[in-house]
Amino acid sequence: KELPELTFDIYGSGGEDSLLREIIANHQAEDYIQLKGHAELSQIYSQYEVYLTASTSEGFGLTLMEAIGSGLPLIGFDVPYGNQTFIEDGQNGYLIPSSSDHVEDQI
Question: Can you give the residue ranges of the Glycosyl transferase family domain (predicted)?
Answer without folding.
Answer: 3-101
